Amino acid sequence: MDARKTTLDELNNRAANLSGRSALLGFDGFVDRIVHPVAQRHGQGNRFTPMKTIEEFGKRVLGAVGKSTNIELSLQKEKIGGNGPIMANALLALGPDVRYLGALGKPAVHPVFTEFAARTKAVSFAEPGVTTALEFTDGKLLLGTMSGLDEVTYENLLQTMGEGAFHDAISRADLVALVNWTMIPNMTAFLTRLLEKVFMAQPPRDQRSFFFDLADPEKRSRGDLVTALRTMARFQAHGRATLGFNLKEAQQVVAALDLGDYPESPDGLREMATRIRQELNVGTVVIHPKESAACATRDDCWWVEGPYTENPVITTGAGDHFNAGFAAGQLLELSPPACLMLGVSCSGYYVRSGESPSLNDLEAFVRNG
What we know:
Blueprint: H1 3-14, E1 22-26, E2 30-41, E3 48-50, H2 54-62, E4 73-81, H3 83-94, E5 97-102, H4 114-119, E6 123-124, E7 129-136, E8 139-145, H5 154-161, H6 163-172, E9 175-179, H7 187-198, E10 209-213, H8 222-233, E11 240-245, H9 247-256, H10 266-280, E12 284-287, E13 292-296, E14 301-305, H11 318-331, H12 336-353, H13 359-368
């Protein structure tokens, strides 16, 4: 199977449909400060050599044991952050109507979110967190301050938006994407209230998609993680539920569910996605390492190679752009391998350019590799 050709053929027939679809996303929000740790400074401004790897940074930190050290962080960019806003922004660029509910500032929207909030008709009901993202060639370290996310609750959203308006907005959405479970302490309770107060009262819709993303659950307990996964799986009764993981998250999930060990190979990724999907009985599980992606549905499992680059312009937000591309494919009713190709291509375009692609940009990127 040629996933690239399949994707282009399917897009040719269905791409125009995306502007008629709607998505509702939530509930986090962060102000992202992208920084480069300075290894050696040669002058003012950008005249410095950055620390290139996490190992180099780690050695500098470990060298301070019993002493002290100073590490300069050179601010490269301040932008909207959080899994939800970045995914929503990426979906906006691709074409569907997007509504955002989340932690963008209270009582006033934080200035970094002003344009985004206007474009997504956002409802903000909590203060955003702040993430200082240390970027390296081999990964990134995200240092977060997130007390505002304690206020992300079902009750606070209703108090701000109104129960009727919220129920109407979520019932109309073709895609409901609820992400960053790890950073939102009350998210599992929020999801439970959605199931009990909203979706139990609505008939299931075959064309409604749910998308969930954990956002690195390492700091959460195994019990909390398993409860959250099984709560997310319950949404399958009300539409088509997809769980999205990067490689590390998928490995944490299989460990929490006692599903064994899998090699980091195409076959291993497909098998890992299949076992998680079977255990949780959801529609789709997708796993996206940096170099590729795999997914499993009730019908089969697939793997595609991604357009990996060793010299990205930016890496923070790459996974959220994968999620946006994959979810856009689902909104268009594309085949699973085509959804995977849109995901890796959306991420690939973003890390090379620092910009979210339009659907035309994405199609050209798929065509040209």
